[in-house]
TrEMBL record:
The keyword GTP-binding is annotated on this UniProt entry: yes
Name the record gives this protein: Developmentally-regulated GTP-binding protein 2
Pfam families: MMR_HSR1, MMR_HSR1_Xtn, TGS
Keyword presence, Nucleotide-binding: yes
Taxonomic superkingdom: Eukaryota
UniProt keyword list: GTP-binding, Nucleotide-binding
Record's GO cellular component terms: cytoplasm
PROSITE patterns, A to Z: G_OBG, GTP1_OBG, TGS
GO MF annotation: an example: GTP binding
Domain TGS: residue ranges: 288-363
Coiled-coil region list: none
Length: 364
């Protein structure tokens, strides 16, 4: 039996099995098996001459955003609208056959936007260009999942499943489980809170399925069997995802309102150029961008040139992004803006900067 068949057998068995206390262990074990086979699928093929894991497009700019969606939802139309690059758009499916990069220039940031071929159900198992598209998605800072607003929620459910099955987790955090493989000593299992989804026996069963007999496992939150499998597998990718519903010029206002209220979702019309400003603003938020301006002593800040950084960075990061060696010679920094208690505040390298702060570096 090939891996794909084994996977489908297990999926069927999981679907058949009623979920209750008595089947809990059996289901946990099946899920572990499933994850194991899927991760075998993810391993790069060793066959010589088999080409095309991903499209070779160099990363550039401050962040990379990958456009993922079914054929003809309007991905290329969006790229051509938001960037100077033109990507052919047409009413037939699979117009785009490769990866086409463009650059969104917004509030001083350069965001690399990747137009990609449409993907369909079965993409993760190699249908269409699915595997290559997914390989590109794994390299992105953000997935922009484009959906056809006239088609309800099916596209979203299907695509999410495709991405899940290859280890991509959208808008979720890595489960808070400490896991360490050991050379001996058996399995030391602990939890810092009451667990409602697994018990020690299930954890052991799952670990044994992975041939792990010596390990330290500490649940720091009430995680599930799936969470544990994600942590053991260690090849999961946690990505932010924005669901962008296009073609709202074709649906009712009630439907627009319903969709726009869903989490991580927003509505646009590329053809009518509706709500695209809000899309850019939201992209900026999701990428956690902030702008920091620099200032030389005795001169006004340079507001034409900002540093694009991520929320939560310190003065040390700011130094690094100006010059590789600057942090080493930092004496202190003067900061103006919302991160400062008074203007200017004299701060050290650990001070966290805010959006639109102005900073002056004083060297030793
Ligand atoms: N009504 C409507 N049609 C749109 C909108 N945006 C794009 N389209 C149309 O949808 C069709 C597909 O657009 P594309 O940009 O080629 O879609 P795609 O997702 O890149 O398609 P593939 O490359 O084939 O995967 C074209 O006929 C577009 O004119 C929109 O906002 N409203
Ligand atoms: K198309
Ligand atoms: Mg296209």
């Amino acid at each position: 039996m090939g891996i794909l068949e084994k996977i489908s057998e297990i999926e069927k068995e999981i679907a058949r099995t009623q979920k209750n206390k008595a089947t809990e262990y059996h289901l946990g074990l099946l899920k572990a098996k499933l994850a194991k086979y899927r991760s075998q699928l993810l391993e790069p093929s060793k066959k010589a001459g088999e080409k095309g894991e991903g499209f070779d497009v160099l990363k550039s700019g401050d962040a990379r955003v990958a456009l993922i969606g079914f054929p003809s939802v309007g991905k290329s139309t969006l790229l051509s609208t938001l960037t100077k690059t033109q990507s052919e758009a047409a009413s037939y499916e699979f117009t785009t056959l490769t990866c086409i990069p463009g650059v969104i220039e917004y509030k001083g940031a350069n965001i690399q936007l990747l137009d990609l071929p449409g993907i369909i159900e079965g993409a993760s198992q190699g249908k269409g260009r699915g595997k290559q598209v997914i390989a590109v998605a794994r390299t992105a800072d953000l997935v922009l999942m484009m959906l056809d607003a006239t088609k309800g929620d099916v596209q979203k459910t299907l695509l999410q499943k495709e991405l899940e099955s290859v280890g991509i987790r959208l808008n979720t955090k890595k489960p808070n489980i400490y896991f360490k493989h050991k050379k001996g000593g058996g399995i030391a299992f602990n939890a810092v809170c009451p667990l409602t989804k697994v018990d020690e026996k299930l954890v052991q069963l799952i670990l044994h399925e992975y041939k792990i007999f010596n390990a330290e496992v500490l649940f720091r939150e009430d995680c599930s069997a799936d969470d544990l499998i994600d942590v053991i597998s260690d090849n999961r990718i946690y990505l932010s995802c924005l669901y962008v519903y296009n073609k709202i010029d074709q649906i009712s206002l009630e439907e627009v309102n319903r969709i726009a209220r869903q989490p991580h979702s927003l509505v646009v019309s590329c053809n009518m150029k509706l709500n695209l400003d809000y899309l850019l603003e939201t992209l900026w938020e999701y990428l956690s961008f902030i702008r920091v301006y620099t200032k030389k002593p005795g001169q006004p800040p340079d507001f034409n040139d900002c540093l694009i950084l991520r929320r939560g960075v310190s003065v040390e990061h700011v130094c690094h992004s100006i010059h590789r060696t600057l942090a080493q010679v930092l004496k202190y920094a003067l900061v103006w803006g919302t991160s400062a208690k008074f203007n200017p505040q004299r701060v050290g390298s650990h001070h966290i900067v805010h959006d639109e702060d102005v900073i002056q570096i004083v060297k030793k």
